[in-house]
Hints:
With about 90 residues, this protein is mainly alpha-helical. About 70% of the residues lie in helices and about 0% in strands. It has 4 helices and no strands. The longest helix has 23 residues, at about 70-90. The relative contact order is 0.20.
Amino acid sequence: MGLKEEFEEYAEKAKTLPENTSNENKLSLYALYKQATVGPVNTDRPGFFNMRERVKWDAWKAVEGKSKEEAMSDYITKVKQLQEEAATASA
């Protein structure tokens, strides 16, 4: 299985992470996903009154230096880590 296929598989698995996954972890996944699928930030930073989108934009901007492949690999690793944490917490 190639990196892109594995990434797509883990993008689906990420949708099944528990509701109590921290916002910090969700932001990290969002940023890596955007970097892997879109590449570097290609929009202006949202305004001050749109805090939710602004925080997401900032998270994406923070991983801007990663290649698409590196972002895919980091995304897969992060989903695996969160799945393990969820399994341990529910055991």
